[in-house]
Amino acid sequence: MNKMWAGRSRKETDKLADEFNSSVAVDGRMYRQDITGSVAHAEMLAGCGIITPAECDAICDGLKGILADIDSGKLEISPEAEDIHMFVEAELTARIGEAGKKLHTARSRNDQVAVDMRLYLREESATVVALIKKLVAAIAAKARETKDYVAPAYTHLQRAQPIVFAHQLLAYAMMFVRDAGRINDAVRRMNESPLGSCALAGTTYRTDRTFTAKKLGFDGACLNSIDGVSDRDFCVELLSAFALVMTHLSRFAEEVILWSSWEFAFVELDDAYTTGSSIMPQKKNPDMAELVRGKTGRVYGDLVAMLTVLKGLPLAYNKDMQEDKECVFDALDTVCKCLEIFAPMIATMKPNRDNMLRAAGKGFINATDLADYLVGKGMPFRTAYNTVGKIVARCIDLGKTLEELSLEEYAAFSDKFGDDVYDAISLRACVSRRISEGGTGAASVEKQIRFVEGFLG
Ligand code: ARG
Q: Phi and psi dihedrals of 220, rounded to 5?
């Protein structure tokens, strides 16, 4: 294939080298952003008197025609092209002739690719945030449904204290709300235009970078042209935000897997989001949740790959940077797929109120409340804690729960026990008395649901 840079070469590049060098299979997906950036650039060139209005019209019409033809499938992005930028420019020149050759005045692929990436990721980030909102909406609805389902909460995966199931679900909602915030922050910082930085040092033409920046919806033009072409912080920031989304999805996935096991049976997943076994007829496997947990590693890998690409690079552009797209696009695609599947899986999941309550009734999860009861009767907390420890040990010997111990049995440990002890340790009371801000009490849970609904807008 005829190279645009062939003037300097004495011979054709090796076919293998061409294939190795080409990024069009990966960056072809940015064709729209590439064309949008080029239209803005051409208009700027005309506005500054660098090309004529007629040339600008020919370029812009040509570019819009290419866009329409790629969109409709009439024009296939050639896999032979070096990258999407070369492809569009070559196609433009083939269509409109000489004027097409003027488009690349006062520009380089170095600022072009940086602008394309920022435009593309700005749009795609909005898609990720929209998907996060869908998931959060599903969690909020499930939280409303389960706001008085008493369940055990765990530390060290040992039954710890009673909560309402909604409280645990809402903890995940908080994580995803923060994730959306992190993505929006990254987008805010990336919204500066590198266009016009050219190869690295700027240009001798009197260009108007503010015009192209505004036209493309950027807050302004980046201040340093070397930074403009070599900065990929925005890729790292987005990748880190995506990695954290995956961490949260993966923890949630792990809980869904546990909850849907026979041992817990706190939830039943809808058949639409589970699979069977090829040999064991009884099986209903939480494959979607497991895959999400499994795919988390890929996204971490993408983040580490991106950081590693950048760490030893001298300024300004180096071809290593072409690797940015595979990392970012893979992470983006993965995070979108995972969010897409997770939302309906949560929306259709059936929580089992009885099983949760039964599990909460075992394991002495009201022991802290028993200690608090004694504190209420004037015993110092540490003494109460020791006393309850002995009572629990006694219950284990007797094979009883705290609720099943008689008042005489309680009296052997302290004279502070009265009839009111049973009310104090009933699971429902334990939950509703957790009135502290952010606790599992009803008012706090309602406040959390409202907060999450507010985020959804
Ligand atoms: N395909 C290249 C990339 O993605 C475009 C920039 C090429 N610039 C250059 N000086 N070779 O990084």
A: 175, -175
- On whether residue 4 sits in a domain, the answer given is no
DSSP state letter for 97 = G
Give domain status of residue 374, yes or no: yes
Token digits of residue 246: 């995956």
104 is catalytic: no
Which residues contact residue 306 at a Cβ distance below 8 angstroms, ignoring those fewer than 6 apart? 232, 235, 236, 239, 323, 324, 327, 328
Dihedral angle computed from the Cα positions of residues 185, 190, 193 and 196, in that order, rounded to the nearest 10 degrees: 160
Distance 38 CA to ligand 1 centre (A): 16
Last residue of a domain, one of 330, 353, 376: 353
Are 238 and 141 members of one domain?
Answer: yes
Residue 1 confidence (pLDDT): 57
Rounded to the nearest whole angstrom, what is the distance from the C-alpha of residue 321 to the centroid of ligand 1? Answer: 8
Bridge pairing between strands 192-193 and 220-221: parallel
pLDDT of the residue at 101: 97
Which of 156, 278, 406, 436 is the catalytic position?
156
Residues 188 and 323 in one domain: yes
Cα 27 from Cα 30, distance rounded (Å): 6
Extract the residue ranges of the chain whose pLDDT is less than 50. Answer: none
* Domain shared by 117 and 98, yes or no: no
Residues 257, 324, single domain; the answer is yes
**Helices 324-347 and 233-259: crossing angle, nearest 10°?**
30
Q: What is the pLDDT of residue 411?
A: 95
Tokens of 137: 């909406």
pLDDT at residue 282, as a whole number: 77
Q: Is 219 helix (H, G, I), strand (E, B) or coil?
A: coil
Distance from the CA of 390 to the center of ligand 1, in angstroms?
A: 71
Whether the ω angle into residue 343 lies within 30 degrees of 0, i.e. cis, is no
Which mutation among 18, 33, 110, 328 tests ligand 1's pocket best, with the greatest number of atoms within 8 A of CB? 110
Sign of CA dihedral 258, 262, 267, 273: positive
Cβ(330) – ligand 1 distance below 6 Å: no
pLDDT given at position 6: 76
User: Is 248 a known active-site residue?
Assistant: no
Tell me the pLDDT tens digit for each residue of 398-455: 999 999 999 999 999 999 999 999 999 999 888 998 999 999 999 999 999 999 999 9
Are 169 and 31 contained in the same domain? no
**What residue owns the CA closest to ligand 1's atom 3?**
322
DSSP one-letter string for 385-420: HHHHHHHHHHHHHHT--GGGS-HHHHHTT-TT--TT
- Residue 237: inside a domain: yes
Q: Which residues lie across from 192 on neighbouring strands?
A: 220
Q: Which domain holds residue 389?
A: 359-456
113 alpha carbon to ligand 1 midpoint, in Å?
7
